[in-house]
Amino acid sequence: MRKNYTIAQRIKSLKGEHISWNTEDNDKTIRLNSRNYDGTSGDIIGFQSKPRANASGTQTVYGAQLSPGANDGIGLATIVGLQTDVYLKGSSGNLSGDVRAFQGQVTDQNLGGRTVSGVVSILDAWHQLHSGHTLSGGVFVINARAAGGGAGWTGFLRAAASGAGGLVVSADGMTANPEGDTEAGYLQVRVGSTDYQIPIYAA
To answer: Domain range spanning residue 169?
Structure first.
């Protein structure tokens, strides 16, 4: 062991114990692969978590759990559950592909046969905030902030093609006619401080 270094291939907890890593100072973090990579091909991955269930039962498998919060009586500015900050440094170097701040995937081995009784989704939004809170800005599934850096948003959402993600481009192809049929409900959208309603129709 060199000074300030511990060389290890694998770290395993004692039987019946968790592994607990804590920094001594409040302004220090646990850093994983925060370094420069010199490779020019293949994938560069900061860290992986791939737990696999190996026995049938009623268990739930989590790839990771993040629960930042504030203790009772503690006020602060903002709590962010997860920040993924894709950083383009400098002004040169082109990307032949995409820039994706978050990529959610549900996949398999191209084999069928399972039954999923619940919902398969990319985003599962849920909250349990007590009605006694004062939520001045409202509670929303998506909060699209004003673009920074001088480049404005192109749009709110993109579908690769008609039908992708359930977004269909079809002239007069809806089951209902918005000009004459009664809407079945609406989506509530707030732009700035004004609430708007987007009508929806039963298919």
So the answer is: 164-200
Asked if residue 189 is part of any domain, the answer here is yes
Q: Rounded to whole angstroms, how far apart are CA atoms 65 and 82? A: 10
Q: How many CB atoms lie within 10 A of CB 201?
A: 14
What would the pLDDT profile of 39-59 be if each residue is shown by its tens digit?
A: 999 999 999 999 999 999 999
Provide the H-helix boundaries in the chain: none
Asked, for residue 94, whether it belongs to a domain, the answer is no
From residue 131, how far is each of 1, 127, 195 by CA, in Å? 55, 12, 20
Q: What confidence tens digit (pLDDT) does each residue in 65-99 have?
A: 999 999 999 999 999 999 999 999 999 999 999 99
Number of structural domains the chain divides into: 1
51 within a domain of the structure (yes/no): no
